[in-house]
Amino acid sequence: MDPDNLKQAWQSQASQTRLTIDAELLVTELRRNQQQFFATIFWRDVREIGVCLLMVPLWIYRGMSQSTPWTWYLTVPAMLWVAGYMLVDRIRYTRQPPEPSESLRQHVESSLAQVEHQIWLLRNVHRWYLLPPSLSLLAFLSQLAWLLRSGGWWTVFAVIDAIVLLALCFAAIYRLNQYAVRTVLEPRHQELETLLMSLKDEMPEIH
Fold first, then answer.
1. Helix boundaries (H) for 94-152
2. For the chain, which end, N or C, has fewer CB atoms within 10 Å of the first or last residue's CB respectively?
């Protein structure tokens, strides 16, 4: 065989071997990152759902023991809504474990879809997470102010202070979620998009 042809064949085979090894390593690392990401999301959902469900009986007990106005109990369906929303969302969008036969591109596309959904959830957290308890607590404070209207200006100021504190608390929660989007999810999304584009440019499928 011609030495030049032999050298060219050897270089071609080495390149293919390196590509296969790199792809396998990349799939392994991607699976590890997926598992860590899914575990973080799972325990976040468990914590949030658990707190909401735990608060329901405590909220009812507090209302009954202190004979609070009926608007106090509006927060119960609000907390159940938040817990139910997160539970249904998890059931609908949690992906099954990846199959060993899936290509690298399929792994990346799956991870990208999960990150995009989490970005959507946190960017819209004010709608499905903050708005229901905000409305219920605002109704309670408004009714409480009406019932205590004979107390004078101090009652008005007390209710205003409570509303401002509530607004600041929910604003802080919203900003914290947007910070998580900017510093955690968007960089991850950009990395996955870059990887996916490079895979599409190089070859259609890498296993």
1. 104-123, 125, 131-147
2. N
In a domain, 122, yes or no: yes
Backbone angles phi and psi of 154, in degrees to 5: -65, -35
CA distance 102 to 24: 12
From the centroid of its chain, how far is CA 90?
10
Burial class (CB in 10 A: 0-12, 13-18, 19+), 136: buried
Q: What is the pLDDT of residues 177-191, one digit of tens each?
A: 999 999 999 999 999
- Residues 49-89 have pLDDT tens digits of 999 999 999 999 999 999 899 999 999 999 999 999 999 99
Residue span of the structural domain in which 79 resides: 3-202
In a domain, 207, yes or no: no
Global pTM value: 0.79
